[in-house]
Design brief:
10 helices; FAD/NAD(P)-binding domain; about 30% helix; alpha+beta; D-Amino Acid Oxidase, Chain A, domain 2; 2 domains; eight-stranded mixed beta sheet; about 375 residues; single chain; 19 strands
Length: about 375
């Protein structure tokens, strides 16, 4: 008989650690945190550190597919998630920057979509702004959609280290090879060894590894390769950045969220460009560095803000795997037909933003049986017939 816990959390990224952190503050103490060696790599450490409200693509992406009410609920959840993570960073001293969340518009179809998005957002009680016809001889933008001061950056390694120091739960460094439901709880097989631990409730926060443990999700949670790079800036930032109000701490996106970036002191982050990957990176279980994407992003940043090419010096970069549900909504909540298993994944490019709040909601569901701020549409039950 293995050790017994009230809750076993598989995954030690932002969601797993946040779930443990919130559970302990809600009085649940007998927790095991499993940090797998191969299941679902820690994507939090591989991310560039950007967090932001709203969504990566515009409001209309969700409203067209799911209706305005669901789109607004998801937008509010993301805004709340941004505020919660920012509050935690401020209170614990995690290095961070905050400024604007911007959408840079350079195509007519994007401009038309932005007009519709701003109208719908305003009708739902949000306060976006759309600025048009920005005059500059070297600026490609036709306009900018401002979604408020919910753009920011924080240090992912410092965030995880701070959470770890604040958690009393032991860390078990084993891969979980299988789950077995029993009347008395759930047995977790650890690796290839004849060793188990037992828990009343299991939280799957291992993202890419969820489908391995729950095969029902194999066709639902789709892996997508991703890539980003950091560019140091020599000389002065161009005047175009001030004209666009792209200050230090800003998060910006363009081409329907297919390209994105952020501003650090004396540096910029840039990511996306998946349309240059085979099948846009969809279905790739691992990500690899593509030099053509890096060059493409460098050129985009230079053209977007009127940098001279010699001003941008590549400093570092990273690759990762995002998880996108087939219906483009995050999956957070208890499994259908088995409430003792809870899952969180499919953050649609907003893992750092949504993970902390996702962990809080899972902790509330476990401790209280409800999480009022979690939209019910995000529960896995919607995938029952998929």
């Amino acid at each position: 008989m293995g050790k017994r816990f009230d809750v076993a959390i598989i995954g030690a990224g932002i969601t797993g650690l946040a779930t443990a952190w919130h559970l302990e503050r809600l009085g649940v103490k007998k927790i095991a945190l499993l940090d797998p060696l191969t299941i679902g790599a820690n994507e939090t450490l591989a991310c560039p550190g950007l967090f932001f409200g709203g969504s990566l693509d515009n409001f209309t992406r969700s409203s067209h597919r799911h209706g305005k009410e669901i789109a607004a609920a998801l937008w509010r959840f993301a805004d709340e998630s941004f505020d919660l993570l920012l509050s935690f960073a401020e209170k614990t001293g995690v290095p961070h920057l905050v400024y604007n969340r911007l959408r840079l518009i350079s195509e007519t179809d994007e401009l038309n979509e932005a007009r519709q998005a701003v109208s719908q957002l305003s009708a739902c009680g949000f306060t976006p702004q759309l600025s048009l016809a920005i005059p500059h001889p070297h600026l490609s933008s036709m306009g900018v959609q401002r979604d408020g001061g919910r753009g920011g950056w924080l240090a992912p390694d410092k965030l995880l280290a701070t959470l770890r120091r604040s958690i009393a739960a032991p860390t078990i460094r084993h891969e979980v090879s299988s789950l077995r439901l029993k009347r008395s709880g759930i047995a977790l097989q650890l690796g290839d060894e004849n060793h188990e631990i037992h828990a009343e409730i299991v939280v799957l926060a291992c993202h890419g590894g969820i489908s391995k443990l729950l095969p029902v999700f194999r066709e639902v949670l789709v892996p997508v390769a991703s890539q980003w790079l950091k560019l140091s800036v020599t000389g002065d930032f161009p005047a175009t950045m001030a004209e666009l109000d792209v200050g230090v701490g800003s998060v910006f996106s363009a081409t329907h969220g297919n390209r994105w970036g952020g501003v650090l002191p004396r540096a910029l982050l840039a990511g996306g460009g998946n349309y240059l990957r085979p099948l846009a990176g969809i279905g790739q279980l691992t990500s690899c560095w593509q030099e053509n994407i890096a060059v493409h992003l460098e050129h985009w940043i230079a053209e977007q803000f009127a940098f001279k090419p010699e001003q941008l010096v590549r400093e570092l970069g990273g690759v990762g795997v995002d998880i996108r549900p087939w219906d483009e909504l995050p999956v957070i909540g208890p499994m259908f037909a088995e409430g003792r298993i809870l899952v969180a994944s499919g953050y649609m490019g907003q893992g750092l933003t949504l993970g902390f709040n996702g962990g809080r909601c899972l902790a509330q569901l476990i401790a209280w049986g409800e999480a009022h701020s979690l939209p019910r549409i995000l529960w896995p039950e919607r995938l029952r017939s998929s």
